[in-house]
């Protein structure tokens, strides 16, 4: 496991990067390399395969994009005359692909290198035309890239650098078969970089057939509390969640709030209910067309809409500046998603607040989350929205051990409140 002392102070000039690239880095107001950049960039420049555990917001995109651009710039002009794809970056979602492309575009300023993007929900024809203009770096989602390959619109036989961004999410979304298909079309001689929010058994198993004697870097663990974020868990009856959320938005005067729902239908229903309560809210999920999603995201980013109600998959990779509030209307199905959810706020050293509306029926999910985090999430009651402790908690038609545990937890909560 590679690691640099976190107290090291260095600038990007220490990496001996191409001068044009350094100018682009400076223009983007990068100051000092983040921990993941300090550790990953030197290894990538040395040509090593990499397995990196780094969460969103750690600077991971620049950690692979900067050395990739440098390596292409250092190649001879003859090597770029054909404008074939040398660098391929795979992402699980369209939103993440667009953000990575934005970063690549900024780093390529002042160079002759070209980039393109391929993702579902957008015009295939426009993407094909961009390929014909010549591409050095392609950012793509697996499904759309395979579509182009099957129609022979693009070739990967010259790829020298392959990057998997958010590999854990790719596996969660069921892209394993697509990735296996893509690997058959790639040169075996290449440098491969795999970035994942968490390094678990499935990622290590997945990486075995991808990486050649990789260096392993882990900057942020799944059970690491996100810095600068105040976590609040409000215990409230399920039927009063909406009222409490609307109260928080109006009474606390929260602006630009990202609310998470477990399902697409739930996101639609919640956004609709909030609109009926006079709150500007829009849903954001995978069933919306790409143009609608981009329009919704633009309105939210420009503060034209107060609340964005999103699903976990749709919101993965979102990077919204000055987002101060995240609300878990429901706990996620997968506990690890809690880290990704609250990581949308508290970015770039700024403070953030993450609120979870917890109904006692979700005790099992909360206990699972606390096990992952290896810490308790203290519950509190919001004045005027205290839970009804006289309710019986049942699962199905009869009491179960889980239900009995939930009742015991209710009594414990009530005892704490009386002290």
TrEMBL record:
One annotated Gene Ontology cellular component of this protein: cytosol
TM regions (residue ranges): none
Keyword field: ATP-binding, Helicase, Hydrolase, Nucleotide-binding
Region Disordered, annotated ranges: 394-419
Domain Helicase ATP-binding span(s) in chain numbering: 41-217
Bias kind Basic residues: ranges: 396-419
Annotated motif Q motif, positions: 10-38
CDD domains named in the record: DEADc, SF2_C_DEAD
Residue ranges constituting the DEAD-box RNA helicase Q domain according to the UniProt record: 10-38
GO molecular function: ATP binding; hydrolase activity; nucleic acid binding; RNA helicase activity
Keyword Amino-acid biosynthesis: no
Stretch forming the signal peptide: none
Entry's family note: Belongs to the DEAD box helicase family.
Annotated protein name in UniProt: DEAD/DEAH box helicase-like protein
High-level lineage: Bacteria, Pseudomonadati, Pseudomonadota, Gammaproteobacteria, Alteromonadales
């Amino acid at each position: 496991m590679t690691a640099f002392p976190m107290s090291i102070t260095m600038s990007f000039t220490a990496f001996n990067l191409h001068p044009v690239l350094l100018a682009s880095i400076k223009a983007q107001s990068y100051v000092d390399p983040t921990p993941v950049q300090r550790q990953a960039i030197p290894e990538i420049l040395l040509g090593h395969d990499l397995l990196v555990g780094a969460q969103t917001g750690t600077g991971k995109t620049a950690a692979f994009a900067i050395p990739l651009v440098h390596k292409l710039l250092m190649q001879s002009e003859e090597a770029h005359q054909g404008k074939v794809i040398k660098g391929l970056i795979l992402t699980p979602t369209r939103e993440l692909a667009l953000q990575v492309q934005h970063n690549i575009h900024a780093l390529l300023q002042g160079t002759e290198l070209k980039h393109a993007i391929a993702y579902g929900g957008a015009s295939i024809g426009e993407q094909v035309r961009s390929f014909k203009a010549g591409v050095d770096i392609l950012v793509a989602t697996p499904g759309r890239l395979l579509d182009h390959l099957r129609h022979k619109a693009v070739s990967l036989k010259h790829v020298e650098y392959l990057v998997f961004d958010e590999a854990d999410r790719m596996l969660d979304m069921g892209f394993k078969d697509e990735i296996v298909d893509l690997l058959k079309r790639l040169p075996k001689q290449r440098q491969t970089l795999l970035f994942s929010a968490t390094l678990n058994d499935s990622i290590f198993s997945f990486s075995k057939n991808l990486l050649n004697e990789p260096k392993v870097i882990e900057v942020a663990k799944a059970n690491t509390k996100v810095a600068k974020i105040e976590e609040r868990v409000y215990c409230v009856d399920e039927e009063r969640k909406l009222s409490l959320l609307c109260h928080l938005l109006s009474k606390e005067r929260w602006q630009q709030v990202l609310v998470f729902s477990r399902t697409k239908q739930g996101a639609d229903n919640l956004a609709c209910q909030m609109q009926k309560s006079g709150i500007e809210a829009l849903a954001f999920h995978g069933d919306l067309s790409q143009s609608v999603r981009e329009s919704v995201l633009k309105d939210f980013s420009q503060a034209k809409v107060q609340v964005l109600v999103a699903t976990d998959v749709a919101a993965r990779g979102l990077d919204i500046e000055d987002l101060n509030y995240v609300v878990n209307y429901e706990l996620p199905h997968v506990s690890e998603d809690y880290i990704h959810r609250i990581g949308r706020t508290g970015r770039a050293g700024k403070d953030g607040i993450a609120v979870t509306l917890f109904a006692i029926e979700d005790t099992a999910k909360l206990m699972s989350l606390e096990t992952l985090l290896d810490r308790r999430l203290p519950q509190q009651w919001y004045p005027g929205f205290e839970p009804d402790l006289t309710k019986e908690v049942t699962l199905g038609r009869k009491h179960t051990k889980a239900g009995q545990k939930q009742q015991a937890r209710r009594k414990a909560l009530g005892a704490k409140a009386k002290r």
